[in-house]
Amino acid sequence: MYQTILLIDDEPNVIAALKHALRRERYHILSAPSADEALEILDQESVDVVVSDEKMPGMSGSELLAVIRQKYPDTIRIILTGRASVEAAVRAINEGEVYRFLLKPCNGFDLAITIRRALQYKKLLSKSRQLVHNSRRQNALLQELEKRHPGITKIDRNGDGAIIVDELEEEFEPLMKAVDVELKKSQRYLPDKLSPARQG
Question: Using alpha carbons only, what angle is made at residue 34 by residues 93 and 190, rounded to the nearest 5 degrees?
Fold first, then answer.
């Protein structure tokens, strides 16, 4: 099954350029000319990554992505912005609204690589949530067994009294390191270098 990418921009030529940049990728690509139409698509489709322009009539890109974060938290959000709107994009990243921003005009290679990394990040987050869920289930089971039969599980506890599940912890630690690496990759921008005030 192809992963779904939603492109949002009120300029048809920009949408066409973004689609052209992703022509070699095996994605199911959708597009919308406005925030309202994008939300309609999201109500009907499972979307993996959203790429939205910042400046659009009505709701801005960062406002739209904030809504998407609330309604569809598993959808990874990327924003396209001109240099004049870099500060808003950086603020959106710092507030957790978006995964990364790309400067317009967008380089096709940068777009493709960013979406690949975003999908990898989404996969890592999904796996980490599953591990946390499994860990909690196993902890609950062990707690119940220990309660009914003290000493039967031969469990270890940490300083807070919580049960330690070595196998899950060994798997969880490298996963979280991988998530951290992906986050650092997504935030390799330096606002002081990109800010228009620093360019001239």
Answer: 20
Residues 6+ positions from 82 with CB-CB distance below 8 Å:
54, 55, 103, 104
Tell the CATH superfamily of the 3-120+184-199 domain. Answer: Response regulator (3.40.50.2300)
pLDDT of 19 over the 80 cut:
yes
pTM: 0.66
Each residue of 31-79: pLDDT tens digit?
999 999 999 999 999 999 999 999 888 898 889 999 999 999 999 999 9
Delimit the domains of the chain by residue range. Answer: 3-120+184-199, 124-182
β strands within 22-90, DSSP E: 27-32, 49-53, 76-81
- Is the Cβ–Cβ distance between 81 and 56 less than 8 Å? no
Strands 100-103 and 76-81: parallel
Dihedral sign from CA coordinates of 134, 71, 33, 40 = positive
